[in-house]
Amino acid sequence: MKNSQRLTASFRDPSGFVFRHNGTLYRQINTTYRENYQTLMKSGLYDDLTRAQLLIPHEEVAVEPAEPSIAYKVIRPEPLQFISYPYERCFSQLKDTALATLSIQKRALKHGMSLKDCSAYNIQFHRGRPVFIDTLSFEIYREGEPWAAYRQFCQHFLSPLALIAHRDVRLNQLLRVYIDGIPLDLTSRLLPTRTKLNFALLSHIHLHAASQKHYADKTVDKSKIARRMSRTSFLGLINSLESGVRGLHWKPIVTEWGDYYQAMNSYTPKALEHKQELVDQCLGLIQPDSVWDLGANVGLFSRFASTRGIPTLAFDIDPVAVERNYRACKAEQTTSLLPLLLDLTNPSPSLGWHYKERMSLLERGPADAILALALIHHLAISNNVPLDWLAKFFYQLGSWLVVEFVPKCDGQVKHLLAFREDIFPDYTLAGFERTFNNHFTIHQKTQIQESERVLYLMKRRE
Amino acid sequence: MNLVHLPASIAAILSSISTLLQTNEAYLDPGSGSYLLQLLLAGLLGSLFVVKASWGKIKGFFQHLFGRGEETPPDEE
Fold first, then answer.
1. pTM across the whole model
2. Which of B24, B34, B48 is opposite residue A150, by nearest beta carbon?
3. DSSP 3-state helix, strand, coil percentages of chain A (rounded to 5)?
4. Is A202 on the interface with B (CB under 8 A)?
5. Which of A20, A159, A387, B59: disulfide with A435, CB 3.0–4.6 Å?
6. Which strand ranges, in their side-by-side order, compose the sheet holding A58-60?
7. Pairwise pLDDT comparison (A23 vs B20), residue with the higher score
């Protein structure tokens, strides 16, 4: 069909694929998946999962398929606000997506189906909850067969969770290197020996890795394997994985940024209050459709957008801040705010086959408005990014920019420059305005009370 | 069965068989190590699952055996 563009993230599964037509996202279901799709819809599984908000709802539409010769149906899934990736998720987000996947698998088994894959990329956060987005991942359950997605579940979910819980939170970044989940032999080597005393980790990580190694160079004739896996054993496997995941915990330690507003003393109470008023005022003025808060910490300012019902992403480099923010979002039952882990000095790149399986941050934008509060000095001074490059980066990210300039006389910048030479002659208020003025129109400029910091509202020059 | 309809019936059966054969497209390689480990652990995992699912009954049985049955509420399971 003309004007249809097949999305490159879904090419492995022959059951169907996602395509975009006139700006709307559709999923083509191929004829080979017909029986499975009919079972999903008629067995009650689809209704069960959508009612529980575990599967993205869809409607069947009369849109011409992108590849008619192999098409059975076209469906239009409910649109998502943003696609996030496992390496952008904090511990509790990874854990919640793992438990949601297992809950889906248990419900599927009750309706005579099973998940044929278990990719962490198939679970997205939608209105504050983890939701499964691949409608074509269900297949008719065949009793006796082991779980085809077992290895993938262990690599995508159990491995990063175990590594964070038992070793270091930063190891979740291995998910960025290994697009099909962290190899089990690597996880097994990195985990402390004491994890061999944990039944779930012993069986699903250590023994699993050993079994993979043992059979790696052996050709196994599947048709000659007499042993079968009963339904009870299958349920036992899912149950064991669930207990293993539930048993993993991570207690956020206090990091440099984990308690920023209390610990850093960057603002007097009056200054903080004034800054909050200004940010809220800017949001009221521009009424954006979407907000990305960069360097959001625990999301204090993100909430000025999300409480207005604006879909908001709160990015931060610190896993503790993101974890705290996510836990608070859950407690508040916030549906418009999604905290995510992101290092702006090395943001999520395009990854996978032909660089097109996973999108870079820029490819997932732009947002309507960007908040860059107490951030510029970290990028310009700690990371030596020229102001012009910063302006160009923000220009690509969003239409509106609420940005705070932190001058050299500020305690935080003094701290950054304390042990290094000041090689930033252009880092002045005038230099900042001159540079940003090349790419943005300054709509508002206000000095924050009891502070040397200045808050700007800018609009991208078209 | 009316013989006139026989070819159509055979075609329908063949079509169903063909559909059944193409029902599941296991595009993901489960990995021989992962596949066989599941079969190896199947008995143990199944037994643990049954024990866990029946834990209330087992507990009730032993409590009853040692004369503490009356302390167990009937709907504890």
1. 0.90
2. B34
3. 45, 20, 35
4. no
5. A387
6. A4-6, A16-21, A24-30, A71-77, A58-60
7. A23
